[in-house]
Write a structure and sequence with these properties.
about 270 residues, five-stranded mixed β-barrel, 9 strands, globular, binds hypoxanthine
Length: about 270
């Protein structure tokens, strides 16, 4: 089936779950942090048109339910570029949410800390990004139904939503740092030389997701908020080799705090 038709099918299936205006993508190790009340859900394979899992890819789910009285969509697990998907598939869920009426997208991820002063366990508000994939999910014929050919990215991470996140964190006594996220394609971690180069470019965090989703969300006119959990010092920042186990371990340790922040934030999002 043609891409746009698939998107419309998926959007219809999502509308069967509810009419959320906000969506949250929970990254690696974070899928348990937002239990919803009156939750209805579908696993990816139950949503027509959704990308098929790759051999090693784990299946994710899309849940719609209430959080603090507000209807919200929560995507648990995501589709990564490094798994072998085309970028058009990586951004498929985000585009389906846009067609289903979602106006605000919150993206979360685990990231390596590049900036001196960022430590494993830190929660960091994403202020901007660098697309080191050097490929764009919008390449190809523009989907006019979704957005313009040349979307503006000068305020990709919504200033008003960032202020709100800072305010909510402050109220809860949660320290929220702020920085620029760079997406590397993965799946190998970066080299120390790459990390030094990224730092010189102005990157504070490095990870293997989020950027294509944010580009697609901005294209479709959604407002975006991004939060990273720093799970490790980026390569060469400390002597320690990087490991996926460590990334998952630190994510697990900080998941509850991020859940607390998002649970307080989501009911206060400015929505149409
Ligand atoms: N690099 C890339 N992706 C990551 C890292 C990292 O250091 N930590 C968690 N995800």
């Amino acid at each position: 089936m043609e891409y746009l038709a698939r998107l419309k099918e998926a959007a219809k299936a999502i509308r069967e779950l509810g009419s959320p205006k906000a969506a949250v993508i929970l990254g690696s190790g974070l899928s348990g942090i937002l239990p919803l009340s009156a939750e209805r859900k579908k696993v990816f394979t139950e949503i027509p048109g959704f990308p098929k899992p790759t051999v090693e890819g784990h299946v994710g789910e899309v849940a719609v339910g209430k959080l603090g009285g507000r209807e919200v969509l929560v995507q648990r697990g995501r589709i990564h570029y490094y798994e072998g998907y085309e970028l058009s598939e990586v951004v498929f869920p985000v585009r389906a949410y846009a067609l289903a009426g979602v106006k605000v997208l919150i993206v979360t991820n685990a990231a390596g800390g590049i900036r001196h002063g960022f430590f494993p366990g830190d929660l960091v508000l994403i202020s901007d990004h660098i697309n080191f994939l050097c490929q764009n999910p919008l390449r190809g014929p523009n989907l006019e139904e979704l957005g313009p050919r040349f979307p503006d990215m000068s305020q990709a991470y919504d200033p008003e939503l960032r202020s709100l996140a800072r305010e909510v964190a402050w109220e809860l006594g949660i320290v929220l740092k702020e920085g620029v996220y760079l997406m590397a394609p993965g799946p190998s971690y970066e080299t120390p030389a790459e990390i030094r180069a990224f730092r010189a470019w102005g990157a504070d965090l490095v990870g293997m997701s989020t950027v294509p989703e944010v580009i697609a969300a901005r294209h479709a006119g959604m407002r975006v908020l991004g939060i990273s959990v720093v799970t490790n010092f980026a390569a060469g920042v400390s002597e320690k080799p990087l490991s996926h186990e460590e990334v998952l371990q630190v994510t697990r340790e900080r998941a509850a705090e991020l859940g607390r922040l998002l649970s307080a934030l989501i009911p206060r999002l400015p929505l149409p």
